[in-house]
């Protein structure tokens, strides 16, 4: 598919080695112009700019928005494109690139741009979280929504430290979180209620740092994979991490897995429980996470689309085989 007009939105301050970011972005733009009639650059300066630039791209008739940045910048762009027919292309950069790990995109923006002819548009149903605090609002997301422990790490993360250490800042934040009190909350999913200190609602098998929490999740699924951690002790989370690293998390009886298109969260008054979407702070409980009405066309590697399709077909074949 040849695109007529594209906007390349990039975050010059995302991740480290910022001095070379603009050079890489301009090289990526030149590569894209081999297949796109017009490519305009849009540089972000502060939080929210990527959402505004994406919405402007839609209004000015762009049929493709290309975003170069980490998962946070990508999430901002998704918010600006939700409900639009404009397609989205990802050029990985920044501190965290879970989406790139999930679908198999190269970490280099230039190499990712060169893959344009080999990518395919895939309709991805977005997720949406509606929350009540600090004031009523909502956030769309592409990958995941976390509640509890991991969102608290994001909320308390030192942004300056993040600029210098990258993902190392999340590791330090995790150590600090182990010294704080874990506030329990309730999850209502598929007619059952659970008490938890960390829950993840995801459409990505990858979580962060190449960890896998929801191995059956993928972007093209209609429903979320939900993992609920019921342990409240910091030492318990050390055990969880070890099991995650060895992909044996399902051996814990206080960790449960679910598939759902709607999950409700509630908490006791006065206890702040935080929410993150795609690695960015979103709000506090109570909240509802569900499949959004909006879909977004995302350019993905053919290999990822085929791998997901074959996996889905294989699951369907097994289901038919066991039916009476």
Short description:
With 324 residues, this protein is of the alpha+beta class.
Main sheet properties: 11 strands, antiparallel
What's the structural domain tally?
A: 2
Radius of gyration: 20 Å
Class of secondary structure makeup: alpha+beta
Mean pLDDT: 86
Strand content range = 35-45%
Shape, please? globular
The CATH topology of the largest domain: Tumour Suppressor Smad4
CATH architecture of the largest domain: Sandwich
Folded structure, characterized:
The protein has 10 helices and 17 strands. With 324 residues, the protein is of the alpha+beta class. It folds into 2 domains: 3-114, Rossmann fold (3-Layer(aba) Sandwich); 127-293, Tumour Suppressor Smad4. The strands form 3 sheets. Strands 5, 6, 7, 8, 9, 10, 13, 14, 15, 16 and 17 form an 11-stranded antiparallel β-sheet that branches. Helix 2 packs parallel to helix 3 and helix 6 (149-156) crosses helix 8. The longest helix is centred in the last third of the chain and has 21 residues, at 302-322.
Task: Write the topology of this structure.
Elements: E1 3-10, H1 21-32, E2 36-43, H2 49-59, E3 64-69, H3 71-81, E4 87-92, H4 98-103, H5 109-113, E5 119-133, E6 137-141, E7 144-148, H6 149-156, H7 159-165, H8 168-177, E8 185-189, E9 192-196, E10 198-202, E11 206-208, E12 211-212, E13 224-229, H9 234-245, E14 255-260, E15 262-266, E16 274-277, E17 280-301, H10 302-322
Parallel strand pairs: 1-2, 1-3, 3-4
Antiparallel strand pairs: 5-6, 5-17, 7-10, 7-16, 8-9, 8-15, 10-13, 11-12, 13-14, 15-17, 16-17
